[in-house]
Specification:
The chain is α/β, with parallel strands linked by helices and 346 residues long. The chain has helices at 38-46, 93-96, 125-129, 142-146, 148-160, 176-187, 200-209, 223-230, 246-255, 280-285, 297-309, 327-336, and strands at 2-8, 11-16, 27-35, 60-68, 80-83, 86-87, 107-108, 120-123, 133-135, 168-172, 192-196, 214-216, 236-241, 256-264, 288-291, 318-323, 341-345. The chain folds into two domains: 2-147 and 314-345, Medium-chain alcohol dehydrogenases, catalytic domain (Quinone Oxidoreductase, Chain A, domain 1), CATH 3.90.180; 153-291, Rossmann fold (3-Layer(aba) Sandwich). It contains twelve helices and 17 strands. Helix 5 (148-160) packs across helix 6 and helix 5 (148-160) packs across helix 11. It binds zinc ion (ZN) (2 copies). The site of one zinc ion has 6 residues, from helix 5.
Length: 346
């Protein structure tokens, strides 16, 4: 089968590899859509603590089952499925408490196991028994189903920071996840959603895609004053930092209202993880700062359900569709922020 093998850092090879042969407890999926994620770009340049090379990456993946091992129950060839990539061990301290996103022995498709940037993907037994294979609701396309994973991460983030009805929500960063956060906050009943974005080009794109109420550029606008004006001087109830910027993290603490919450959703670069924060904002405003980085199988199931119900749609966030051999081009498009979601269709 054709595949994109990351042989090592920045060494991506489009090549023929043997098609995996599933055991009696595994399944084989014909990949129909695999979306490029910010993490795929990070892995390409820097590797990842959970990855050994060579590896086929790609973890936002959906496809059709072509082979189902005889011991696997509940699935049949022809089933359309989306895979939740983060596979909890279900034995550790956090798994036992139902906090599977915090699993101490987390393994992931596209990291520990080969992922979706290939014609076929093996679904290992741990992924099946971990409840990570979900049937795609009728009427939902493979490419939208592949976006259940980033959507699940947004659901986890907004749960942990209590986004709810009547909130004023600020999202800093208007990439694909910034836009998804904005839309999700909307269906959770946010009163107002405000997008902040330092790239003029991205801000223009967000005006079409994010479905927010206000759009500001912190490089040009005094956003502290703007948000005070919108909130009667209080500040924003929820601030989501959907970008990897220490300045944005610092700004978030300034923008949040007393008793509000902030989520550092975007991680900082691993070689530059320090930020200068005015912690007196936490001290005096009695607000909460949290971070989230992934999702559990349950969040993925919920994400697919919500997408299937039509309550939230993400199809128009897909700006590029490319064949497998153009993965490198796709990584470049995503990295430069020229588009929002780039889908590889093997
Ligand atoms: Zn992802
Ligand atoms: Zn665990």
């Amino acid at each position: 089968m054709k595949s994109q093998v990351l042989e090592n850092i920045e060494n991506l090879q489009f090549k023929e590899v043997p098609r995996p042969e599933p055991s009696s407890r595994e399944m084989l999926m014909k990949v129909q859509a695999c979306a490029i994620c910010g993490t795929d770009i990070k892995i390409y340049h820097h590797g990842h603590r959970l990855i050994t090379f060579p590896r086929i990456t790609g973890h936002e993946v959906a496809g059709e089952l072509v082979e189902v091992g005889e011991e696997v129950e509940g699935f049949a060839p022809g089933d359309r499925v989306a895979v939740a990539p983060a596979v909890p061990c279900r034995r550790c301290y956090y798994c036992q408490r139902g906090e599977e996103a915090m699993c101490e022995n987390l393994r992931a498709v596209g990291y520990y196991w080969d992922g979706g940037f290939a014609e076929y993907m093996l679904i290992p037994r741990e992924v099946i028994s971990g409840g990570c294979v979900n049937k795609i609701p009728e009427g939902l396309s493979f490419e939208v189903a592949a976006l259940a994973e980033p959507f699940a991460c947004a659901i986890n983030a907004q749960e942990l920071m209590w986004v709810s009805e009547g909130d004023v929500v600020v999202v800093i960063g208007s990439g694909p996840l910034g836009c998804i956060h904005s839309r999700l906050a909307r269906i959770k009943g946010a009163d107002k959603v405000i997008i902040l974005e330092v790239s003029a080009h991205r801000l223009e794109m967000a005006k079409e895609k994010a479905r927010a109420d206000f759009y500001f550029n912190p490089a040009e606008d005094n956003v502290v004053d703007k948000i005070k004006a919108i909130t009667g001087g209080r500040g924003a109830d929820r601030v989501i930092v959907a970008c990897g910027s220490d300045k944005a993290q610092s700004l978030a603490l300034e923008l949040v209202a007393p008793l509000g919450s902030v989520n550092f959703f975007g991680g900082l670069p691993k070689d530059k993880p320090l930020a200068t924060l005015n912690t007196n904002f936490l001290h005096y405003k009695e607000c909460y700062a949290v971070g989230t980085h992934g999702s559990s199988p349950q969040h993925n199931r919920l994400a697919l359900e919500v997408l299937g119900s039509g309550l939230l749609d993400v199809e128009d966030l897909i700006t590029h569709r490319l064949p497998l051999k153009e993965l490198k081009t796709g990584l470049g498009i995503a990295e430069k922020g020229e588009g929002l979601k780039v889908i590889i269709e093997p």
